[in-house]
Known about the structure:
The chain is an alpha/beta fold. It has helices spanning 11-32, 57-71, 73-79, 84-96, 115-135, 154-168, 188-205, 221-224, 232-238, 251-257, 270-283, 303-322, 336-360, 373-389, 394-401, 405-412; strands spanning 44-49, 101-105, 141-145, 178-182, 214-218, 244-249, 289-291, 328-330. The chain folds into two domains: 44-346, TIM Barrel (Alpha-Beta Barrel), CATH 3.20.20; 351-412, no CATH class. The chain is built from 16 helices and eight strands. Strands 7-6-5-4-3-2-1-8 form an eight-stranded parallel β-sheet. Strand 4 (178-182), helix 7 (188-205) and strand 5 form a beta-alpha-beta unit. Helix 7 (188-205) packs parallel to helix 9.
Amino acid sequence: MDDDQSGGVDIEALTAEINHRLEDADAALARDYPGERAGRQPVHTLYVPADQVEPDLLASYANRAQMSIVEFGAEFLDVLDGDEDLVGRVLAKLEREPIEDLRIDFEDGYGARSDDEEDETVRETAAVVARWVKDGAAPPFHGIRFKSLEPATRSRGLRTLAMYVEGLAGDGALPDGFVVTLPKVTSVDQVEAMTVAAECIEKDLSLRSGSLRFELQIETPQAVVGSDGTVQVARMIHASAGRCVGLHYGTYDYSADLGIAPAQQSLEHPAADHAKAVMQAAVAGTGVRLSDGSTNVLPVGDGDAMRAAWANHRRLVRRSLDRGLYQGWDLHPAQLPTRYAATFEFFRSGLEPAVERLRAYGKVESTAIQDEPATVRAMAAFLLRGLDCGALADAEVVTASGLNLNKLTELAGRPIEKRKAG
Length: 422
C-alpha cells in the first residue's frame, strides 16, 4: 500500500523511530567492532630468551634453520611427502626473511635474575634491536615479553618495559611493527592498568600517543571465564582503548592450570581448542589478531628424532591453519622450516579452489557452490594472507583470479594500503 493511502505505513517515520532507538547500539558496534585491521599478520612469533640475543642472532637463526635442512635433507623431504618444489620455496623464504616476528623474552624463557643483571640485559638487547632497525635488518615485527602484572613481578616487569622502550625509541619514535606481550593476564583490571602504563611511558618519553601497543597472552583460566561466568577475554579487548592488537594462546601454563597431565599438554587438547574457540569469537570483527601457542617437541637429535619432531610440528601448524589460526609460536630455529612448509602448502593447495570460486561468484550456472558475500570476503583474505607470507606470488594470483590486488583487498574488507610481502 502506498504511503499516502489511508492506513498505510509511514516508512519514513518508522525508519526515523528505529534509527533513534538503535543510535547508541549502532555507535557501539562501529566503535567496538571496526573490522579487519590494515596490514600483514605474521605467520609466527619466534621466542628467544633475552640473554641469548646477540647482534648476529638473525643471521645465526637463519643459518641454523637452513643447515637443519641440509644436514637432514632426506628426513625433511620425507616429512614433506617428497615435494622438492616446497623444499625450494622454504629455503628461499629462509634466505630472504627467516623470521617474521621476533619476541625477546624477559619472562619464563629468561627467568628471575638480579635487577642489575636484568637491567644490563635490557640495555644490551634494546641497543642490538635499535641497530637492526637503523640498518634495515630488523624483522618486520618484533618486541618483548616482559614479566606479568601479578604482584610478585609487577615492578620488575614495568621497569623492563619502560627501560626497553626508552632504549629502542632513541629518535623519539617506536619502529613500525613493534609490540609488547603482557603474559599471565588474569583480569580486566590488569588490561586497564597496562593501558595506563603505556600512556604514562609515552608521555614521559614524548612518544606519539597510542604508539605503544600490546598483545595479551591468554594462559590462565581466569582470562577465559571470570568468577562471574562472563568471557573475560572479550572484555579485556575492549578495555584496552584500542591498544590491544593480539591474543596469544599459552599452551603449557593454561594446560597446567587446568590440571592436565604433562604428557597430554598440547595445542590439540580439547581444553586448548575450547579456549582458542572462545578467543576466536572474542576477536572477530575487532581487528585484534589471534595466535596459537607452541609445541615443546623440538627438532633436535638424530635423523629419526628430527623426522618425528618435524612431522609433529608440520601437522600441528596445518591443524591450526585449518581452524583459522594463522599465527603460532616457534621456539627453535629448526622449527622454522616446518612452519613455512606447512604454511606454504596450506595456501598453495587452496589457491586454485579459491580463485575458481571467486571467478564463479554470481554466475549461477557456472558452479555447484553458491557462495555468500561473507565467504567471498574470506576467500579474498585467504589469498592476501598467502601473498603476505610469500607462499603465493602477486602475478599468479592476479592472473588466476582476474582481480588486481586493490580489488582483492577491497573484497577482503581490509583498508587499502601499500603491501610488503614476505
